[in-house]
Amino acid sequence: MSNDVRIERVLKATIDRVYDAWTRPALLVRWYCPNPALDLKVDADVRVGGEYVVTMGPYVARGTYTEVDPPKALGFSWQWDHEGGPSQVRVELTEVADGTRLLLTHTGLSSPEDATGHQEGWELELNRLAELLSAPPTGLAVDPA
After folding, report:
1. 111 — phi, psi (to 5°)?
2. Does residue 15 contact residue 93 with C-beta atoms inside 8 Å?
3. Within a domain: residue 82?
4. Which of 4, 26, 30, 51 shows a CA-CA span of 20 to 30 A to 143?
5. 95 in a structural domain
């Protein structure tokens, strides 16, 4: 078993809509937690060296953006406040005929069990992202930050 996560999906939305959903806090709060019953708060300074904090009920994840290449790629460190060491997440987006191919890799996790837990969490979050993106584009309209 691996200590890494790799998830590939095709989302039925433009690459710009998918990238916005990953980088705009007003959109992140609509999908960026595997459990929709938890209160979700996202603060994000999306620039290389910028920091983010995601509060999911009692759980907090934080990190620093290491790659910001709109609308193709986003990389950031990932650290839970309550456990584990730092790891790395990279989201790669590519335009395809059916929408946007998303490739998420989460590397440097502490154990195969940790990777399994993160895989399950990311899968649930990406399901929520797909639901958000299936709404008409006007459903994603927010004022620029």
Report:
1. -165, 165
2. yes
3. yes
4. 51
5. yes
Does residue 143 fall inside a structural domain? no
Look at residue 44 and tell me if it is in a domain: yes
What is the domain count for the chain?
1
Counting beta carbons within 10 angstroms of the beta carbon of residue 96, is it exposed (0 to 12), middle (13 to 18) or buried (19 or more)? exposed
DSSP string, 88-116: EEEEEEEEETTEEEEEEEEE--SSHHHHH
| Structural tokens at position 92 | 């790669």
Q: Is 26 exposed, middle or buried (0-12, 13-18, 19+ CB in 10 A)?
A: middle
Q: How many helices (H) and strands (E) does the chain have?
A: 3, 7
Amino acid at residue number 47: R
Q: Which of 102, 124, 127 is nearest to 56 (CA)?
A: 124
Here the tokens at position 126 are 């990406």
pLDDT in tens, 91-140: 999 999 999 999 999 999 999 999 999 999 999 999 999 999 998 765 45
Residue range(s) defining the domain that contains residue 126 = 5-134
Give the CATH number for residue 12.
Answer: 3.30.530.20
| The predicted structure's pLDDT at residue 9 | 97
